[in-house]
Amino acid sequence: MKLLEYEAKRIFETAGIPVPRTGGVITKAAQLPAALRRAGKGPWVLKAQVLAGGRGKAGGVKLVKTPAEAREAAKAMLGMKIATHQTHGSALSVREVLVDQASKIAREIYLSVVLDRREACPVVIASAEGGMQIEELAKSRPEAILRERVDSVRGMEPFQARRLAFRLGVPVSELGSFVRLVSALVRLFVDLDASLVEVNPLILTAEGRLLAIDGKIVVDDNALFRHKELSARKDPEATALEREAKKVGINYIGLDGNIGCMVNGAGLAMGTMDTVALAGGTPANFLDVGGGATAEQVAAAFRIILKDPKVRTILINIFGGIMRCDVIAQGVLEAVKKVKLSVPLVVRLEGTNVAEGRELLRRSGLRMEQAESLWDAAQKAVSAAAR
Ligand code: GDP
Ligand code: MN
């Protein structure tokens, strides 16, 4: 899960990492004057809060000197669509704008903590050539990138942080501040179960102070159960349907196609999507109802799939392993009673008690097509969606 810049900076602040004075986030231009007052005296910087880097070049970071300029910038930024080298051809809508006091920049440094998979430890990555894209720098001048591997139990050793500071040319007066800052970043990385903690750029201000003027934190989704305060937050990347699914414990990711897939098990869900594609169709979603596949789960899955207006047909592909096919069939029938089905339904059951399961579906009189195999199911679903 990716955190927005302002969320990362708030975490930095509580960890003692120096960040600019802020006026907070605004969602309407009317909130700007109060935000400017909170941020202190100008100039200020307005920053689009979207989950992508490279905003600077895409009009998502604006330095403003006067409240009037700030007003123009805020009006232009709120609601704008922003496409950067990190948004992969699509554009993100700007709903929140961060208002910070602007800093006078003497130097920009790149600093991040990521996981070194081969050595199985965190590694601090730094470069004196901050501000620019680290991916490009890694290609063109790999020698400009510094690395310090960190023992995950002992944390960043002060001598390692000092070594980095010297190689980055951090002034001696800021040595202590730099050591504290890097150690705090590494601690955050470990404590948050992060896969990335990045400050780009960390600046030296004209007054010689270190300041994190941009921040990015990515938390490993598999560790979110340990971070209730983060998992409770509204994930800006999730759609309304994905949020609803998460609430009822269904793994759901919306896609562009028109065949709604309901599958138990993530691997089977992927296999089903591939098979649908092979049969010439396009899945509307990835959906894993989980191991249980109870009537409630299935009903919830129906409701979520049917809320997607693109869906032209539903394909149920369930494998009865520990769960028996007759119980699953019962679950599907009960669910269909609760939800009004407005599109054709194709069902493929396989596994324990499959004969009983199919018989139950057949006797129900419910309008559906039963499939003999996954390939058969995919073809039936594709032709139903085309009708
Ligand atoms: P990103 O492009 O999405 O990574 O956004 P950043 O927050 O890193 O900002 C991009 C660039 O804008 C920085 O590298 C700086 O050069 C510039 N910038 C951002 N904030 C300030 C500021 O407070 N003062 C000045 N002078 N420049 C800033
Ligand atoms: Mn940046």
Q: How would you portray this structure in words?
A:
The longest helix is centred in the middle third of the chain and has 17 residues, at 175-191. The mean pLDDT is 93. It is built from 13 helices and 19 strands. The chain is of the alpha+beta class and 387 residues long. A hairpin with a 4-residue loop joins strand 8 and strand 9 (121-127). The protein has 3 domains: 1-19 and 104-237, ATP-grasp fold, B domain (D-amino Acid Aminotransferase, Chain A, domain 1, 2-Layer Sandwich), CATH 3.30.470.20; 21-102, Dna Ligase, domain 1 (2-Layer Sandwich), CATH 3.30.1490.20; 240-386, Succinyl-CoA synthetase domains (Rossmann fold). Manganese (II) ion binds at residues 53, 200, 214.
Structural class: alpha+beta
Number of domains: 3
Q: How far from one another are the termini?
A: 39 Å
Query: What is the CA-atom radius of gyration, in angstroms?
Result: 26 Å
Q: Indicate the mean pLDDT.
A: 93
Q: What does the overall shape look like? A: elongated
Summed up, the helix count is: 13
CATH topology of the largest domain: D-amino Acid Aminotransferase, Chain A, domain 1
Ligands and ions found:
guanosine-5'-diphosphate, manganese (II) ion
State the main characteristics.
Dna Ligase, domain 1; alpha+beta; D-amino Acid Aminotransferase, Chain A, domain 1; 3 domains; 13 helices; binds manganese (II) ion; Rossmann fold; binds guanosine-5'-diphosphate
